[in-house]
Amino acid sequence: MHRWPLLDLVAAYALRFPAEDAVAARFAAFISAHPECFERACAPGHITGSAWLVSHDRTAYLLTHHRKLGRWLQVGGHADGDADAARVALREAREESGIAGLALAAIDGCVQPLDLDAHVIPARSGEPAHVHYDVRFLVVAPPGATFTISNESLALRWFRADAPLGVAHDESVARLAAKARALAV
Fold this sequence. Notes:
Helix content: 25-40%
CATH topology: Nucleoside Triphosphate Pyrophosphohydrolase
Number of domains: 1
CATH architecture: Alpha-Beta Complex
């Protein structure tokens, strides 16, 4: 599995978000040190891909009430050997939302991460605690999109982009919402 394209995305991210150079450096160090970083079996963590899934007119975003983690989060999941983080994010968005016709959105003229986030997944039933190195992309739903709740979710819900999030959420969800709002200006 070739890690250079992801390392290039991480380097470009660090240039776009200089205040986040520490997280980009953490990603680069992890990816460089672990050739198997795209596999779930990689300890101490692995690459995941997520989608900040917005409506076609960008007035709403879709969150999942994650079954295992019990929190409202963006859709996303494991790379499972796929070294293309954008493809992973799009695949996971389709699987977890059931929405057909999703598209990766360009940022500054090309598909690139909207956000990087390294977060600990707690230990549970035979799986030790580990870190998800989550590469997050902006994904747009087609007009009239309707979702289907997958077995990974307790619920899915559209939230208005111009209103405060009325459910408990991670700081990274608020950061994603702010970054997406800034792009819509």
